[in-house]
Amino acid sequence: MQLGLRPKTKLADTYKEFHIIRIHGRFHGIPPHLDPEIVQMQDRLGTHPAIMRAATEDDLKALIDTQENQLQLPEIQDSYAGYDIISHRNAVFAIPREAGSVDLDLEDECLYAGAFRAPTIPALRERIDAIKAAIPVEFAGWMPIFATMGNCGKHPQFTHTATPPLGYRFTRSALPEKTASAPRWWHLSSMVRRIGDASRGLFVSIRPLFTFFGWQQGASLIGRILLVAAIVKLFFTLRQGGGSILPILRFIRSRHFKSQLMLSKYRGLVFLTSAPFTCNQNPWVIEIEDPTTLFNPFIHNGQTSYLDIGKSPYLPIVKALLESHQCKGILTHMRSTARMLPTLFQSETIARKITYVPLGVNIPARWQQHDRNDPDCINVLYINSWCQLPGNFHVRGGLDVLEAFAILQERYPQLRLTIRTGLPPLDNHYHRIMESSWVRVINRFLSTDEMEQLHAESHIFLLPAARVHIVSLLQAMAAGLAVVASDGWGMQEYLTHERNGLVVPGRYGKTSWVDEEAGLLREDYVPTHTTDPIVVQGIVDAVSRLVEDHELRRRLGQTARHDVETTYNLKSWNDGLKSALDKAVAAP
How far apart, in whole angstroms, are the C-alpha atoms of residue 408 and residue 405? Predict the structure, then answer.
C-alpha cells in the first residue's frame, strides 16, 4: 500500500454532459437541460426526478451509461395560440411563451408558469382553446409578501387553482425569480444598502424611494404611478371607514409595495389567499379559513384568547377594506367562519359577499383498505404542517402523540409510529420515548408520490391539534385512514365521531373556541407546549379500540374515503368556487 505522497483524487466535472456533484454523502448527476446552480439553490438535488444519484462516482457513471438512452429531454413539437407544445416523458406540455424556461419535471414550477400537460397534441390544443375562451383570474399567492405567512400562497390548500372551474382560468403574472435579471446599474443599490447599514435610521426613512424608483421586472413608470394613486385612494377609503391615521399607514405599508408593484401590469380580477394583501388597485376575492388571518400581520392565530377585538384599531380598517367596491367576494370552507364574519364586522355589505363551500381534495388511487384482519404491524401516522415549521409540532399535538404512544406501544407491540416533522427542542423524556419505542422520524421534504405512498401504508392517522388543519385531515380521509382527531375548532365540520373518525376531547374551549358574541375565533396555543392528560388518555383509548377492532378501523376508513369521494372532492369545491367567481364578475 502506498503510504507516502499520492496524487490528489479529482472528481470529474461532467460525464456524458451530466454535471457531477458530490454533496451530503452522495454523488449526483445533473442532466444537461438543468442548471446546476439553480438546482442547488432550490434545494432540489435530493428530490428532482431527472437527477441520478449513487453512492460512488463509478456507480453514478454506470447508472448514467445504462439510463442515458432513456433520458428524454424536452423537445419543441409545435406552437399554438401563444403556447409552445413540448414533448417530455411520454406526454406533451403546453407552455406560455412569456413564461420562459420551465422545468417540466417540477409540478409546482409548471403550476407557477401556467404550463399543463395532456396525453396528445389534439387534446392539448382543445384545452388551450378552452383556456383562451375562459375568464382570467390572477392567483396572487406568488407575491413575496405571502412568504411571511408560511408561504401560504403555495400551500396545498390552493392546488385547486390548477384545475379551475368551467369558464375560468387562473393566471400568474410574475415569472419565477430565476428568470429575472437586473440591469447593471441596479447593483449600485447594494452599495447604498451597505452604506445604509451604518446609518440604519436614515436608510429606513428613505427606503420607500428605492422601492418606487428601483428596478423591478415588469414594472413601468405608469404602473408605479397608478399604484401610488391606488394607495392614496385606499388611504381615504379606510379613513372614511373610521380608521385612524397611523394604523392606516401601518396597514398600507404592510401590504408590501414591492409585491403590489409586481402585480402592477395586471388589470383584472385577483384571487388572494388568507390575507388581503392588496392596495385595492384591482377587484379581488379572497379565500380564508378563519377571520384572524384577515388582520395579518397585526393579529396572529394562537394569540386571540385575551384580545378585545372591539378596541383594535385595525377592525374598522379591515371592515372598510372588505366593504369597499373592489372586494368582490369572501370564500371560506368553514361554515363557522361564514357565521362569524357578519357578527365580527356588523356589516350587511360584508355578509352578502360571503360564500361557504366545503373544501375538496384529490382522491388518490392508492389507499388503505384495511383488508388484513391481523396485520403484522399497524402503522400510525402523525404529520406536521406543510411548511414543516418545527414549532407547529406542538400545535398539532406532537407531545401528546409521543406520550400516548409510549403507553400504547407497551400494550400493543405491533404498533409503529411515523412522525413526519422537523422536531423542535424537546425534553430528554420525549427523546427517550422515541428511542425506546418504535418511532420513525421523517424530517425531509416528501414529494406528492411519497406522501401518497406514506398515507397508503398507514392505518391510523393522529391529529390531536389545537384546531382544524383541513388539508391534512382531508388527505388522510381520502387515503382511507382511521382518523383520530381532537375536538379543536373546525374538526367536527368534517369529522363525525364514530362515523368517519374518532374525536378526542380536551381542545375546544382550551386551545380554540368561537366567541359567538364577538364573532371571533379565540385561540391559545400555549397549552399545547405541555402534554394534556385528557388528550393523551383520549388518544390511548381511541387507538386501543382501533387496534382491537379491525371492523371499526375498516368502517371508519372506508366511510371517510366515501365522504371525500361524494362530498369533499374537487368537483364539489369547483362548483362552489364558480358560484363565488360568477358573483364577483357580475358585481357592478
Answer: 5
Element at 536 (helix H, strand E): helix 533-548
pLDDT computed for residue 183 by the predictor: 41
From the list 371, 373, 433, 435, the residue with the least C-alpha distance to 403 is: 433
How much is the mean pLDDT over the chain?
A: 88
Distance CA 80, CA 127 (A): 11
Q: Is 103 exposed, middle or buried (0-12, 13-18, 19+ CB in 10 A)?
A: buried
Residue 159 has pLDDT above 80, yes or no: no
Cis amide linkage into residue 283, ω under 30° from 0: no
Give the residue with greater pLDDT, 192 vs 164: 164
**C-alpha cell read off for 115:** 404550463
Residue 306's Cβ-side half-sphere holds a number of Cα atoms within 13 Å equal to 2
Looking at residue 171, its amino acid is: T
Give the pLDDT score at 2.
Answer: 61
pTM of the predicted model as reported, rounded to 2 decimal places: 0.85
| Contact (CB, 8 A) for 581 and 322 | no
How many angstroms separate the CA atoms of 280 and 42, rounded? 32
pLDDT tens digits for range 344-393: 999 999 999 999 999 999 999 999 999 987 778 999 999 997 767 788 99
pLDDT of residue 206: 43
Q: Which helix (H) or strand (E) holds 287?
A: strand 284-288
Confidence of residue 142 (pLDDT cuts 50, 70, 90): confident
Q: Alpha carbon of 242 to those of 2, 274, 307, 316, 360: distances in Å?
A: 83, 23, 20, 6, 38
As a whole number, mean pLDDT of residues 401-415 equals 96
Instruction: Report the distance separating Cα 520 and Cα 320, nearest Å.
Output: 18
Question: In this predicted structure, what is the pLDDT of residue 172?
Answer: 81
* Amino acid at the residue 110: C
Q: Which helix (H) or strand (E) holds 512?
A: strand 512-515
In what helix (H) or strand (E) does residue 269 lie, and over which residues does it extend? strand 269-273
Specify the pLDDT at position 547.
96
Residue 532: its pLDDT value, please?
98
| Residue pair 406/433 in contact by the 8 Å Cβ criterion | yes
- SS3 sequence of 129-156: HHHHHCEEEEEHHHCHHHHHHCCHHHCH
pLDDT value of residue 534: 98
| Reduced 3-state DSSP string for 48-79 | CCCCEEECCHHHHHHHHHHHHHHCCCCEEEEE
Residue 73 and residue 64 in contact, taking contact as beta carbons nearer than 8 Å: no
Residues 6+ apart with CB under 8 A from 303: 523, 524, 525
Listing DSSP states for 466-510 in one string gives SB--HHHHHHHHHTT-EEEEE--BTGGGT--BTTTBEEE-S-BTT
Query: Residue 88 and residue 71: Cα distance in Å, rounded?
Result: 10
What are the φ and ψ backbone dihedral angles of 201, each rounded to 5 degrees? -60, -45
Q: Give counts: helices (H), strands (E), the chain.
A: 20, 22
Cell (9 digits) for 454? 406514506
